[in-house]
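> call design_seq(struct)
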Protein backbone atom coordinates (compact mmCIF):
# COMPACT_ATOMS: atom_id res chain seq x y z
CA UNK A 1 0.00 0.00 0.00
CA UNK A 2 2.86 2.38 0.82
CA UNK A 3 4.16 4.01 -2.33
CA UNK A 4 7.03 6.44 -2.69
CA UNK A 5 4.68 9.18 -3.90
CA UNK A 6 2.70 9.05 -0.67
CA UNK A 7 3.66 11.77 1.73
CA UNK A 8 4.80 10.75 5.18
CA UNK A 9 1.46 11.61 6.73
CA UNK A 10 -0.68 9.71 4.23
CA UNK A 11 -1.31 6.58 6.27
CA UNK A 12 -2.57 8.69 9.13
CA UNK A 13 -4.10 11.53 7.11
CA UNK A 14 -7.67 10.28 7.21
CA UNK A 15 -7.96 9.68 10.97
CA UNK A 16 -6.10 12.95 11.52
CA UNK A 17 -8.55 14.80 9.28
CA UNK A 18 -11.49 13.25 11.11
CA UNK A 19 -10.00 14.30 14.47
CA UNK A 20 -9.67 17.87 13.18
CA UNK A 21 -13.28 17.88 11.98
CA UNK A 22 -14.51 16.46 15.26
CA UNK A 23 -12.79 19.18 17.27
CA UNK A 24 -14.29 21.88 15.04
CA UNK A 25 -17.70 20.25 15.53
CA UNK A 26 -17.18 20.33 19.31
CA UNK A 27 -16.53 24.06 18.99
CA UNK A 28 -19.67 24.39 16.87
CA UNK A 29 -21.62 22.55 19.56
CA UNK A 30 -20.47 25.14 22.12
CA UNK A 31 -21.87 27.87 19.86
CA UNK A 32 -25.09 25.87 19.42
CA UNK A 33 -25.49 25.58 23.20
CA UNK A 34 -25.14 29.37 23.47
CA UNK A 35 -27.67 29.88 20.66
CA UNK A 36 -30.09 27.51 22.43
CA UNK A 37 -29.63 29.48 25.64
CA UNK A 38 -30.28 32.78 23.84
CA UNK A 39 -33.67 31.42 22.73
CA UNK A 40 -34.74 29.90 26.02
CA UNK A 41 -32.98 31.31 29.09
CA UNK A 42 -30.80 34.35 28.43
CA UNK A 43 -31.90 37.67 29.99
CA UNK A 44 -32.38 40.39 27.33
CA UNK A 45 -29.48 42.47 28.66
CA UNK A 46 -27.12 39.58 27.93
CA UNK A 47 -27.57 40.09 24.17
CA UNK A 48 -24.38 42.13 23.64
CA UNK A 49 -22.12 39.62 25.37
CA UNK A 50 -23.84 36.74 23.58
CA UNK A 51 -23.25 38.37 20.18
CA UNK A 52 -19.55 38.79 21.07
CA UNK A 53 -19.30 35.16 22.20
CA UNK A 54 -20.98 33.81 19.06
CA UNK A 55 -18.92 36.01 16.74
CA UNK A 56 -15.66 34.90 18.41
CA UNK A 57 -16.59 31.22 18.26
CA UNK A 58 -17.75 31.51 14.65
CA UNK A 59 -14.43 33.14 13.74
CA UNK A 60 -12.35 30.47 15.50
CA UNK A 61 -14.41 27.65 13.98
CA UNK A 62 -14.09 29.21 10.52
CA UNK A 63 -10.31 29.53 10.86
CA UNK A 64 -10.05 25.88 11.89
CA UNK A 65 -12.35 24.79 9.07
CA UNK A 66 -10.37 26.65 6.42
CA UNK A 67 -6.84 26.07 7.80
CA UNK A 68 -4.16 25.12 5.31
CA UNK A 69 -3.36 21.96 7.27
CA UNK A 70 -6.97 20.82 6.74
CA UNK A 71 -6.63 21.46 3.00
CA UNK A 72 -3.39 19.45 2.97
CA UNK A 73 -4.99 16.57 4.85
CA UNK A 74 -7.91 16.50 2.42
CA UNK A 75 -5.53 16.47 -0.54
CA UNK A 76 -3.49 13.66 1.04
CA UNK A 77 -6.65 11.60 1.56
CA UNK A 78 -7.82 12.21 -1.99
CA UNK A 79 -4.51 10.90 -3.24
CA UNK A 80 -4.68 7.74 -1.14
CA UNK A 81 -5.78 4.79 -3.32
CA UNK A 82 -6.77 2.73 -0.27
CA UNK A 83 -9.45 5.26 0.63
CA UNK A 84 -10.84 5.22 -2.89
CA UNK A 85 -11.82 1.57 -2.39
CA UNK A 86 -13.77 2.46 0.73
CA UNK A 87 -17.26 3.73 -0.21
CA UNK A 88 -17.89 5.34 3.19
CA UNK A 89 -14.58 7.21 3.12
CA UNK A 90 -15.18 8.22 -0.50
CA UNK A 91 -18.59 9.69 0.34
CA UNK A 92 -17.18 11.40 3.44
CA UNK A 93 -14.30 12.93 1.45
CA UNK A 94 -16.57 14.13 -1.37
CA UNK A 95 -18.63 16.10 1.16
CA UNK A 96 -15.61 17.25 3.21
CA UNK A 97 -14.13 18.66 0.00
CA UNK A 98 -17.39 20.45 -0.80
CA UNK A 99 -17.55 22.00 2.68
CA UNK A 100 -13.91 23.04 2.58
CA UNK A 101 -14.16 24.63 -0.86
CA UNK A 102 -17.24 26.58 0.17
CA UNK A 103 -15.86 27.67 3.53
CA UNK A 104 -12.54 28.87 2.08
CA UNK A 105 -14.46 31.28 -0.14
CA UNK A 106 -15.58 33.25 2.91
CA UNK A 107 -13.19 35.60 4.72
CA UNK A 108 -13.13 35.13 8.50
CA UNK A 109 -14.01 38.80 9.09
CA UNK A 110 -17.27 38.35 7.15
CA UNK A 111 -18.13 35.18 9.07
CA UNK A 112 -17.59 36.97 12.38
CA UNK A 113 -19.55 40.02 11.35
CA UNK A 114 -22.43 37.87 10.19
CA UNK A 115 -22.53 35.92 13.48
CA UNK A 116 -22.46 39.14 15.49
CA UNK A 117 -25.13 40.83 13.38
CA UNK A 118 -27.38 37.75 13.50
CA UNK A 119 -27.29 37.60 17.25
CA UNK A 120 -28.08 41.33 17.64
CA UNK A 121 -30.69 41.33 14.86
CA UNK A 122 -32.46 38.48 16.63
CA UNK A 123 -32.93 40.64 19.74
CA UNK A 124 -34.04 43.61 17.61
CA UNK A 125 -36.58 41.36 15.88
CA UNK A 126 -37.96 40.16 19.23
CA UNK A 127 -38.49 43.81 20.32
CA UNK A 128 -39.98 44.85 16.99
CA UNK A 129 -42.33 41.86 16.92
CA UNK A 130 -43.42 42.48 20.50
CA UNK A 131 -44.21 46.12 19.65
CA UNK A 132 -45.44 45.18 16.16
CA UNK A 133 -43.27 47.96 14.69
CA UNK A 134 -41.56 46.92 11.48
CA UNK A 135 -39.46 50.14 11.43
CA UNK A 136 -37.50 48.92 14.46
CA UNK A 137 -36.38 45.81 12.59
CA UNK A 138 -35.94 47.38 9.14
CA UNK A 139 -32.32 48.63 9.59
CA UNK A 140 -31.27 45.18 10.83
CA UNK A 141 -32.90 43.50 7.86
CA UNK A 142 -31.02 45.91 5.56
CA UNK A 143 -27.77 44.89 7.28
CA UNK A 144 -28.60 41.18 7.05
CA UNK A 145 -29.38 41.53 3.34
CA UNK A 146 -26.13 43.42 2.68
CA UNK A 147 -24.12 40.72 4.45
CA UNK A 148 -26.07 37.98 2.66
CA UNK A 149 -25.24 39.60 -0.70
CA UNK A 150 -21.56 39.61 0.30
CA UNK A 151 -21.75 35.94 1.28
CA UNK A 152 -23.54 35.08 -1.97
CA UNK A 153 -20.96 36.88 -4.07
CA UNK A 154 -18.11 35.03 -2.27
CA UNK A 155 -19.81 31.70 -2.97
CA UNK A 156 -20.70 32.45 -6.55
CA UNK A 157 -17.52 34.32 -7.61
CA UNK A 158 -16.25 32.85 -10.86
CA UNK A 159 -19.06 30.30 -11.05
CA UNK A 160 -21.74 32.54 -12.51
CA UNK A 161 -24.21 31.13 -9.97
CA UNK A 162 -27.27 33.17 -9.10
CA UNK A 163 -26.99 34.94 -5.70
CA UNK A 164 -30.11 33.28 -4.32
CA UNK A 165 -28.93 29.84 -5.45
CA UNK A 166 -25.61 30.44 -3.70
CA UNK A 167 -27.43 31.00 -0.39
CA UNK A 168 -30.01 28.27 -0.96
CA UNK A 169 -27.17 25.77 -1.39
CA UNK A 170 -26.18 26.27 2.22
CA UNK A 171 -29.52 24.72 3.24
CA UNK A 172 -30.42 22.52 0.27
CA UNK A 173 -27.26 21.47 -1.59
CA UNK A 174 -27.82 21.00 -5.30
CA UNK A 175 -31.17 22.82 -5.43
CA UNK A 176 -31.78 25.87 -7.65
CA UNK A 177 -34.37 28.63 -7.51
CA UNK A 178 -35.55 27.88 -11.06
CA UNK A 179 -36.16 24.24 -10.10
CA UNK A 180 -38.08 25.41 -7.02
CA UNK A 181 -40.20 27.68 -9.21
CA UNK A 182 -41.16 24.67 -11.33
CA UNK A 183 -42.00 22.44 -8.34
CA UNK A 184 -43.85 25.21 -6.49
CA UNK A 185 -45.96 26.04 -9.54
CA UNK A 186 -47.08 22.39 -9.72
CA UNK A 187 -47.90 22.36 -6.00
CA UNK A 188 -49.76 25.66 -6.26
CA UNK A 189 -51.76 24.37 -9.22
CA UNK A 190 -53.01 21.51 -7.08
CA UNK A 191 -53.56 23.55 -3.94
CA UNK A 192 -55.28 26.71 -5.10
CA UNK A 193 -58.46 24.97 -6.41
CA UNK A 194 -58.51 22.71 -3.34
CA UNK A 195 -58.37 25.66 -0.94
CA UNK A 196 -61.08 27.45 -2.98
CA UNK A 197 -63.30 24.36 -3.00
CA UNK A 198 -62.99 23.90 0.76
CA UNK A 199 -63.81 27.58 1.31
CA UNK A 200 -66.84 27.31 -1.01
CA UNK A 201 -68.26 24.35 0.91
CA UNK A 202 -68.22 26.49 4.02
CA UNK A 203 -68.25 23.55 6.41
CA UNK A 204 -66.79 24.10 9.84
CA UNK A 205 -66.01 20.98 11.83
CA UNK A 206 -66.57 21.27 15.54
CA UNK A 207 -63.26 22.35 17.04
CA UNK A 208 -64.27 22.39 20.71
CA UNK A 209 -61.22 20.23 21.52
CA UNK A 210 -58.96 23.05 20.38
CA UNK A 211 -60.64 25.39 22.83
CA UNK A 212 -60.57 23.45 26.11
CA UNK A 213 -58.47 25.21 28.73
CA UNK A 214 -55.86 22.89 30.24
CA UNK A 215 -53.10 23.70 32.73
CA UNK A 216 -49.75 24.17 30.99
CA UNK A 217 -47.69 21.97 33.37
CA UNK A 218 -50.05 19.05 32.63
CA UNK A 219 -49.74 19.76 28.90
CA UNK A 220 -45.94 19.74 29.18
CA UNK A 221 -46.01 16.33 30.90
CA UNK A 222 -48.41 14.97 28.25
CA UNK A 223 -46.28 16.24 25.37
CA UNK A 224 -43.15 14.75 26.90
CA UNK A 225 -44.88 11.40 27.32
CA UNK A 226 -45.95 11.39 23.64
CA UNK A 227 -42.46 12.39 22.48
CA UNK A 228 -40.97 9.55 24.54
CA UNK A 229 -43.53 7.13 23.13
CA UNK A 230 -42.63 7.94 19.54
CA UNK A 231 -38.99 7.25 20.41
CA UNK A 232 -37.39 10.53 21.49
CA UNK A 233 -34.65 9.60 23.96
CA UNK A 234 -34.81 11.89 26.99
CA UNK A 235 -31.53 10.58 28.37
CA UNK A 236 -30.01 12.27 25.29
CA UNK A 237 -32.38 15.22 24.90
CA UNK A 238 -34.69 17.79 26.48
CA UNK A 239 -37.88 19.67 25.68
CA UNK A 240 -38.20 23.27 26.88
CA UNK A 241 -40.43 26.17 25.94
CA UNK A 242 -39.63 29.10 23.60
CA UNK A 243 -41.57 31.66 21.55
CA UNK A 244 -40.41 30.07 18.31
CA UNK A 245 -40.22 26.27 18.61
CA UNK A 246 -37.03 24.71 17.26
CA UNK A 247 -34.72 21.70 17.48
CA UNK A 248 -31.01 22.02 18.04
CA UNK A 249 -28.86 18.93 17.75
CA UNK A 250 -25.84 19.95 19.79
CA UNK A 251 -23.92 16.74 19.28
CA UNK A 252 -23.74 13.12 20.41
CA UNK A 253 -26.12 12.57 23.32
CA UNK A 254 -27.58 16.08 23.38
CA UNK A 255 -30.58 17.09 21.27
CA UNK A 256 -32.67 20.06 22.44
CA UNK A 257 -36.27 20.67 21.44
CA UNK A 258 -38.62 23.50 22.31
CA UNK A 259 -42.39 23.83 22.08
CA UNK A 260 -44.82 26.60 22.89
CA UNK A 261 -47.92 26.14 24.97
CA UNK A 262 -51.17 28.02 25.40
CA UNK A 263 -53.81 27.11 27.95
CA UNK A 264 -56.31 26.54 25.16
CA UNK A 265 -55.15 24.52 22.20
CA UNK A 266 -53.59 21.28 23.37
CA UNK A 267 -53.82 19.69 19.87
CA UNK A 268 -51.77 22.56 18.45
CA UNK A 269 -49.07 22.28 21.11
CA UNK A 270 -48.95 18.54 20.47
CA UNK A 271 -48.52 19.17 16.73
CA UNK A 272 -45.61 21.45 17.50
CA UNK A 273 -44.05 18.83 19.78
CA UNK A 274 -44.53 16.09 17.17
CA UNK A 275 -42.87 18.37 14.63
CA UNK A 276 -39.81 19.18 16.72
CA UNK A 277 -39.59 15.60 18.01
CA UNK A 278 -39.50 14.49 14.35
CA UNK A 279 -36.42 16.70 13.89
CA UNK A 280 -35.08 15.33 17.18
CA UNK A 281 -35.54 11.69 16.10
CA UNK A 282 -33.51 12.41 12.97
CA UNK A 283 -30.76 14.07 15.03
CA UNK A 284 -30.73 11.12 17.42
CA UNK A 285 -30.73 8.67 14.50
CA UNK A 286 -27.62 10.17 12.89
CA UNK A 287 -24.53 8.19 13.80
CA UNK A 288 -22.97 10.95 15.84
CA UNK A 289 -21.37 8.69 18.44
CA UNK A 290 -18.94 7.37 15.81
CA UNK A 291 -19.14 10.11 13.21
CA UNK A 292 -19.51 13.45 14.94
CA UNK A 293 -18.12 16.22 12.74
CA UNK A 294 -18.10 14.03 9.63
CA UNK A 295 -20.59 14.45 6.78
CA UNK A 296 -21.70 10.83 7.27
CA UNK A 297 -22.91 11.82 10.75
CA UNK A 298 -24.76 14.94 9.56
CA UNK A 299 -28.19 15.72 8.09
CA UNK A 300 -28.41 15.62 4.28
CA UNK A 301 -30.22 18.93 3.88
CA UNK A 302 -32.81 21.04 5.62
CA UNK A 303 -35.48 19.77 3.23
CA UNK A 304 -34.75 16.21 4.35
CA UNK A 305 -34.62 17.37 7.98
CA UNK A 306 -38.01 19.03 7.57
CA UNK A 307 -39.42 15.89 5.94
CA UNK A 308 -38.80 14.07 9.22
CA UNK A 309 -40.62 16.70 11.28
CA UNK A 310 -43.55 16.97 8.88
CA UNK A 311 -43.88 13.19 8.62
CA UNK A 312 -44.41 12.88 12.39
CA UNK A 313 -46.45 16.06 12.68
CA UNK A 314 -48.76 15.56 9.69
CA UNK A 315 -48.71 12.02 8.37
CA UNK A 316 -48.70 10.43 11.81
CA UNK A 317 -50.08 13.19 14.10
CA UNK A 318 -53.01 14.19 11.91
CA UNK A 319 -54.10 10.63 11.15
CA UNK A 320 -57.14 8.83 12.52
CA UNK A 321 -55.10 5.88 13.87
CA UNK A 322 -52.87 8.26 15.83
CA UNK A 323 -55.85 9.75 17.68
CA UNK A 324 -57.22 6.29 18.42
CA UNK A 325 -54.10 5.89 20.51
CA UNK A 326 -53.46 9.49 21.62
CA UNK A 327 -56.95 10.42 22.79
CA UNK A 328 -57.10 7.78 25.55
CA UNK A 329 -53.64 8.99 26.58
CA UNK A 330 -54.94 12.58 26.64
CA UNK A 331 -57.88 11.47 28.78
CA UNK A 332 -55.50 9.90 31.27
CA UNK A 333 -53.49 13.14 31.40
CA UNK A 334 -56.28 15.74 31.33
CA UNK A 335 -59.21 13.85 32.88
CA UNK A 336 -62.79 15.02 32.53
CA UNK A 337 -61.93 18.13 30.48
CA UNK A 338 -61.43 15.99 27.35
CA UNK A 339 -63.76 13.14 28.32
CA UNK A 340 -66.48 14.00 25.80
CA UNK A 341 -64.33 13.91 22.65
CA UNK A 342 -63.92 10.99 20.27
CA UNK A 343 -60.87 10.18 18.12
CA UNK A 344 -62.88 11.34 15.10
CA UNK A 345 -63.51 14.73 16.79
CA UNK A 346 -59.78 15.19 17.23
CA UNK A 347 -59.04 13.93 13.73
CA UNK A 348 -61.43 16.55 12.35
CA UNK A 349 -60.14 19.29 14.64
CA UNK A 350 -56.53 18.86 13.61
CA UNK A 351 -57.41 18.65 9.93
CA UNK A 352 -59.51 21.80 9.68
CA UNK A 353 -58.63 23.99 6.71
CA UNK A 354 -58.83 27.61 7.72
CA UNK A 355 -56.70 30.18 5.93
CA UNK A 356 -54.80 32.03 8.66
CA UNK A 357 -52.17 34.73 8.93
CA UNK A 358 -49.55 32.67 10.75
CA UNK A 359 -47.48 30.11 8.86
CA UNK A 360 -46.65 27.84 11.79
CA UNK A 361 -50.32 27.58 12.76
CA UNK A 362 -51.60 26.99 9.25
CA UNK A 363 -53.18 23.81 7.95
CA UNK A 364 -51.68 21.45 5.40
CA UNK A 365 -53.67 22.89 2.51
CA UNK A 366 -52.54 26.50 2.96
CA UNK A 367 -49.10 26.04 4.56
CA UNK A 368 -47.18 25.90 1.30
CA UNK A 369 -48.78 29.12 0.07
CA UNK A 370 -47.17 30.84 3.08
CA UNK A 371 -43.81 29.42 2.07
CA UNK A 372 -44.15 30.49 -1.57
CA UNK A 373 -44.95 34.04 -0.47
CA UNK A 374 -41.71 34.19 1.55
CA UNK A 375 -39.69 32.58 -1.24
CA UNK A 376 -40.81 35.20 -3.76
CA UNK A 377 -40.39 38.13 -1.37
CA UNK A 378 -36.93 37.18 -0.14
CA UNK A 379 -35.71 36.68 -3.68
CA UNK A 380 -36.98 40.16 -4.56
CA UNK A 381 -35.35 41.62 -1.41
CA UNK A 382 -32.01 39.97 -2.13
CA UNK A 383 -32.03 41.08 -5.76
CA UNK A 384 -32.89 44.64 -4.68
CA UNK A 385 -36.18 44.55 -6.60
CA UNK A 386 -38.08 45.10 -3.36
CA UNK A 387 -36.98 47.73 -0.82
CA UNK A 388 -37.01 46.71 2.84
CA UNK A 389 -39.34 49.65 3.62
CA UNK A 390 -41.88 48.25 1.12
CA UNK A 391 -41.81 44.73 2.51
CA UNK A 392 -44.85 44.96 4.85
CA UNK A 393 -47.05 46.35 2.06
CA UNK A 394 -45.86 43.70 -0.40
CA UNK A 395 -46.45 41.00 2.22
CA UNK A 396 -49.98 42.21 2.98
CA UNK A 397 -50.89 42.48 -0.68
CA UNK A 398 -49.75 38.93 -1.39
CA UNK A 399 -51.52 37.59 1.69
CA UNK A 400 -54.75 39.04 0.38
CA UNK A 401 -54.19 37.73 -3.14
CA UNK A 402 -53.30 34.17 -2.02
CA UNK A 403 -55.43 33.65 1.06
CA UNK A 404 -57.97 36.46 0.97
CA UNK A 405 -56.81 37.78 4.33
CA UNK A 406 -56.24 41.34 5.54
CA UNK A 407 -53.12 41.61 7.70
CA UNK A 408 -53.96 43.79 10.73
CA UNK A 409 -50.39 44.48 11.92
CA UNK A 410 -46.74 43.63 11.30
CA UNK A 411 -46.65 41.10 14.13
CA UNK A 412 -49.13 38.99 12.15
CA UNK A 413 -47.44 39.86 8.87
CA UNK A 414 -43.85 40.44 7.87
CA UNK A 415 -42.51 40.26 11.45
CA UNK A 416 -43.89 36.82 12.31
CA UNK A 417 -40.90 34.64 11.42
CA UNK A 418 -37.54 34.47 13.14
CA UNK A 419 -35.55 33.40 10.05
CA UNK A 420 -34.58 36.66 8.40
CA UNK A 421 -33.40 38.04 11.74
CA UNK A 422 -31.07 35.06 11.96
CA UNK A 423 -29.66 35.76 8.53
CA UNK A 424 -31.36 32.77 6.98
CA UNK A 425 -32.14 33.95 3.46
CA UNK A 426 -32.90 30.94 1.24
CA UNK A 427 -34.16 28.78 4.09
CA UNK A 428 -37.94 29.02 3.66
CA UNK A 429 -38.24 26.86 0.50
CA UNK A 430 -36.88 23.90 2.49
CA UNK A 431 -40.21 23.83 4.35
CA UNK A 432 -42.17 23.01 1.21
CA UNK A 433 -39.45 20.63 0.05
CA UNK A 434 -39.83 18.96 3.46
CA UNK A 435 -43.57 18.53 2.88
CA UNK A 436 -42.95 17.04 -0.55
CA UNK A 437 -40.26 14.64 0.69
CA UNK A 438 -42.40 13.70 3.70
CA UNK A 439 -45.37 12.76 1.51
CA UNK A 440 -43.18 10.72 -0.81
CA UNK A 441 -41.35 8.92 2.04
CA UNK A 442 -44.69 8.26 3.75
CA UNK A 443 -46.11 6.63 0.61
CA UNK A 444 -43.03 4.38 0.47
CA UNK A 445 -43.27 3.52 4.18
CA UNK A 446 -46.93 2.55 3.76
CA UNK A 447 -46.05 0.25 0.86
CA UNK A 448 -43.33 -1.44 2.87
CA UNK A 449 -45.07 -1.56 6.26
CA UNK A 450 -48.56 -2.93 5.54
CA UNK A 451 -49.55 -2.98 9.24
CA UNK A 452 -48.57 0.66 9.78
CA UNK A 453 -52.06 2.01 10.58
CA UNK A 454 -52.78 -0.74 13.09
CA UNK A 455 -49.39 -0.21 14.70
CA UNK A 456 -49.94 3.54 15.06
CA UNK A 457 -53.43 2.96 16.49
CA UNK A 458 -51.77 0.78 19.13
CA UNK A 459 -49.12 3.42 19.86
CA UNK A 460 -46.45 1.13 18.43
CA UNK A 461 -44.38 3.33 16.15
CA UNK A 462 -41.18 1.32 16.54
CA UNK A 463 -41.48 -0.26 13.06
CA UNK A 464 -41.92 3.17 11.42
CA UNK A 465 -38.99 4.66 13.33
CA UNK A 466 -36.92 1.60 12.48
CA UNK A 467 -37.76 2.07 8.79
CA UNK A 468 -36.73 5.74 8.91
CA UNK A 469 -33.51 4.90 10.78
CA UNK A 470 -32.62 2.17 8.28
CA UNK A 471 -33.53 4.03 5.10
CA UNK A 472 -32.72 7.64 5.96
CA UNK A 473 -31.13 8.49 9.29
CA UNK A 474 -28.13 6.19 9.40
CA UNK A 475 -26.76 7.37 6.03
CA UNK A 476 -26.02 10.95 7.04
CA UNK A 477 -24.82 12.81 3.93
CA UNK A 478 -23.76 9.65 2.11
CA UNK A 479 -26.33 10.33 -0.64
CA UNK A 480 -27.52 13.70 -1.89
CA UNK A 481 -31.13 14.62 -1.11
CA UNK A 482 -32.17 13.81 -4.69
CA UNK A 483 -30.32 10.47 -4.70
CA UNK A 484 -31.70 9.54 -1.28
CA UNK A 485 -35.24 10.25 -2.45
CA UNK A 486 -34.83 8.01 -5.49
CA UNK A 487 -33.18 5.30 -3.44
CA UNK A 488 -35.93 5.23 -0.79
CA UNK A 489 -39.00 5.85 -2.94
CA UNK A 490 -37.90 4.65 -6.39
CA UNK A 491 -38.69 8.04 -7.89
CA UNK A 492 -37.40 11.57 -8.18
CA UNK A 493 -39.07 14.18 -5.99
CA UNK A 494 -42.47 15.17 -7.41
CA UNK A 495 -45.66 16.94 -6.36
CA UNK A 496 -47.99 13.95 -6.74
CA UNK A 497 -47.70 12.22 -3.32
CA UNK A 498 -48.30 15.52 -1.50
CA UNK A 499 -51.28 16.35 -3.69
CA UNK A 500 -52.71 12.88 -3.07
ZN1 LIG B 1 -39.18 22.13 11.21
Amino acid sequence: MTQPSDSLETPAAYPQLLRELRETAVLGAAAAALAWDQETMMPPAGAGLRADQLALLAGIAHERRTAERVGNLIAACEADPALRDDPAATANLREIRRDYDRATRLPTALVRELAQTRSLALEAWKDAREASEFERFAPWLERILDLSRSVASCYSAGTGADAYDALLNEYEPGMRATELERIFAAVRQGLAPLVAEIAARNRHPDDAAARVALPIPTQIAFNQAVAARIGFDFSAGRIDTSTHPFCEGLGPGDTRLTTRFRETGFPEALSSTMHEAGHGLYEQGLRKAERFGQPLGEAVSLGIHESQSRLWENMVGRSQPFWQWALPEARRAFGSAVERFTPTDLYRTVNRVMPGLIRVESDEATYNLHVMLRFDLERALLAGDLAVADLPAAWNERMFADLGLEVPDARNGALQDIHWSMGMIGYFPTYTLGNLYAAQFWAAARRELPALDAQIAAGEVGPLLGWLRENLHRHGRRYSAAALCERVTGEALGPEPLRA
